[in-house]
Design brief:
Elements lengths: L5 H18 L2 H10 L6 H6 L15 H22 L8 H10 L14 E3 L3 H7 L3 E3 L10 H10 L5 E11 L5 E4 L6 E17 L4 E18 L2 H7 L3 H20 L16 H12 L2 H14 L3 H17 L3 H14 L3 H22 L8
Antiparallel strand pairs: 1-2, 3-5, 4-5, 5-6
């Protein structure tokens, strides 16, 4: 992470303006110089970061200019590489560099709403999410009194409470995209909905906040019809879109706080011992309470090492089903230690990959660490 002085920031701004003057001319240059003047977006251009988190690119004051200049340089070099490889280039240098210089223009914000990014003030977010900047307007409402939250938790026999503090939807423009389907008959209409939610998870008895953040995701609604008009009419109306978006908000947040729960197919031990065969019947009937009780007990107290290993392996898969990847790894390694096999090793490798993948998503802020 770089820490520019005021003089260096001014120097970077001057270099950017110089690059514009070198590449563009005429009316386009005049409009760009106006847009980046001090009375328009000049200050935001000089100070804006290119992203908000340390593990993303150029998350520091002045990082925006560094980023777009790097993109422009590399885009120019890649064009030459493509041409040398025989690719026909049908755009000019000016068009290429215009796109490179402005591909992230929205990160400067607007005159009406101010800069897109502002400094992160939450120690929790800086420490747990490497967040250095947050979006302007991402502040949540004031925390409710702990006493009131504690009363709600006691009434519902809960230790913690999740609060939806903010909710909005935005329909991207153009709102509707109509295209013929792959069969050549009929039409489909698609509408992208962007949902923004603000959440807190709090443990009132300990006066502790686990999660406090704003999350944005998008969903694509697609319907069909015999004609374009039919397809358009079949899109849900505003009220139905709000209902759908509210359901998505809860589902997406549940996925964030339980990142280990995904749809996967696993082959557990269902034969080889009477207890294993008995629990296989419980699995078929969906009686997971009995399944877990039997597997866990025999993973440690089974009458043979083979039974202990099979139950340990099955407990690993059940732990993964519950999203407890660390616990799953413990049981899988126990199974391999008691009864070494390629089946156990392959599953350990699968869990290793999933745990690494999960950590990457947590660092990127796409998942919330289990709380």
């Amino acid at each position: 992470m770089r820490n520019y002085t005021a003089e260096q920031l001014q120097g970077n701004y001057d270099k950017f303006i110089g690059a514009l003057k070198k590449v563009f001319k005429g009316e386009r240059l005049e409009k760009l110089l106006l847009m980046y003047s001090e009375t328009e977006l000049g200050q935001e251009l000089a100070l804006a970061p290119a992203s908000g988190k340390l593990h993303f690119h150029s998350a520091y004051v002045g990082g925006y200019i560094d980023h777009v200049m790097n993109v422009a340089r590399n885009a120019y070099k890649l064009r030459k590489v493509y041409e040398e490889g025989g690719v026909k280039v049908d755009f000019t240098d000016e068009e290429l560099l215009f796109a490179a210089f402005h591909h992230d223009l929205g990160k400067l914000g607007t005159r009406e709403n101010g800069p897109l990014y502002k400094a992160e003030t939450s120690d929790w977010h800086r420490k747990n999410q490497n967040s250095m900047f947050k979006h302007n307007g991402d502040d949540l409402p004031k925390v409710l009194p702990w006493g009131g939250l504690l009363s709600i938790c006691k009434k519902e026999y809960a230790n913690a409470i999740a609060l939806l503090e903010g909710f909005s939807i935005r329909e991207e423009n153009p709102l509707v995209k109509v295209s013929e389907d792959s069969q050549g008959s009929g039409f489909t209409a698609s509408q992208k909905i962007v949902v923004t939610t603000a959440w807190r998870i709090q443990e009132p008895e300990k006066h502790r906040t686990f999660v406090e953040d704003v999350f944005t995701f998008s969903k694509l609604i697609t319907v069909s019809g015999e004609t374009k008009e039919d397809a358009l009419r079949n899109l849900p109306d505003r009220k139905d879109r709000l209902i759908m978006a509210s359901a998505w908000a809860g589902q997406e947040f549940a996925r964030l706080i339980k990142p280990g729960v995904v749809g996967l197919k696993r082959n557990y031990y269902s034969k080889g011992h009477p207890i294993i065969e008995e629990t296989a019947a419980y699995v078929e009937s969906g009686d997971w309470g009995k399944v877990e009780s039997k597997w866990k007990k025999n993973a440690y107290q089974g009458e043979t090492d083979e039974l202990k290993a099979m139950c340990s392996f099955n407990m690993a898969m059940l732990s993964e089903k519950h999203g407890l990847l660390n616990q799953a790894m413990g049981f899988a390694r126990r199974a391999q230690r008691i009864m070494p096999s390629n089946k156990h090793l392959e599953y350990i490798n699968i869990l290793n990959f999933r745990m690494l993948e999960q950590q990457d998503l947590i660092k990127e802020g796409k998942l919330i660490k289990n709380w």
